[in-house]
Design a protein that fits this description.
By secondary structure, this protein is α/β, with parallel strands linked by helices. The protein has a single domain, classed as 4-Layer Sandwich (Metallo-beta-lactamase, Chain A). It contains four helices and twelve strands. Helix 3 links the parallel strand 11 and strand 12. Helix 3 packs parallel to helix 4. It is globular and about 45 Å long.
Length: about 220
């Protein structure tokens, strides 16, 4: 299996992962998406509007959907009209087994900005499925904990700056994490541009994959 098979960038920090072997559909931070396929699992990294988007969560949810989200999302998700089977609360450093998918949480925070304080315990996710480890960094700067993130097949890294790492810092994160493939995200809508993605690609080289929005790599 190719590292990016079944991974679709939905714009901004949103991704859909269609697991062929385990027949699971996982969404991460859906925001202003056009997808209609329902989710088995939805992962939310934190409560900001462009990550915990209630209309998008509502759109792709069914009663069997399991949502994993940080505490700052809990009351809002509970207010949705979909009757969820389960809402799990995320904090850094835990491991969950959901519908046969092992999900690990890792820290995500700012080191020189005030938007995502470390004490808020926001998260990134490592998803283990179909013999791959996919790391979604969440809204984070280049942080020391990244040295503990090992054996990653695909790293989904923010590059837009302002609220997260910029392209240069994300390129340093690639050196530390050493994934098989590195995909830039968190650019093109709220903050950041195609120029940032091109700069990231230039710094990282062949390991960097700039994805086309809405294209499932497994279908190309």
């Amino acid at each position: 299996m190719q590292p990016l098979e079944g991974i679709t960038w939905l714009g901004h920090a949103g991704f859909k992962i269609s697991a062929v072997k385990s027949n699971r559909v996982i969404y991460i931070d859906p925001y202003q998406i056009n997808e209609t396929e329902k989710a088995d699992i939805i992962l939310i990294t934190h409560g900001h509007f462009d990550h915990c988007s209630l209309p998008d969560i509502q759109r792709i949810s069914k009663p069997e959907t399991v949502i994993v989200a940080t505490p700052d999302c809990q009351s809002r998700i509970a207010s949705l009209s979909v009757e969820f089977r389960e809402l799990k609360i995320a904090q850094p450093g835990i491991s969950l087994e959901i519908k046969g998918v092992r999900i690990e949480t890792v820290p995500a925070y700012n080191t020189d900005k005030h938007f995502h304080p470390k004490e808020d315990e926001l998260v990134g996710y490592i998803i283990n499925l179909d013999s791959r480890r996919i790391y979604h960094a969440g809204d984070t700067d280049l942080i020391p904990e990244m040295k503990n993130i090992k054996n990653i097949d695909v790293a989904l890294l923010p590059i837009g700056g302002t609220y997260t790492m910029n392209a240069e810092e994300a390129a340093e994160a690639v050196k530390i994490i050493n994934p098989k493939a590195a995909v830039p995200m968190h650019y093109g809508s709220v903050v950041g541009s195609d120029a940032d993605a091109a700069r990231f690609k230039g710094l990282v080289g062949e390991k960097a994959v700039v994805m086309e929005e809405g294209v499932n790599r497994g279908q190309r």
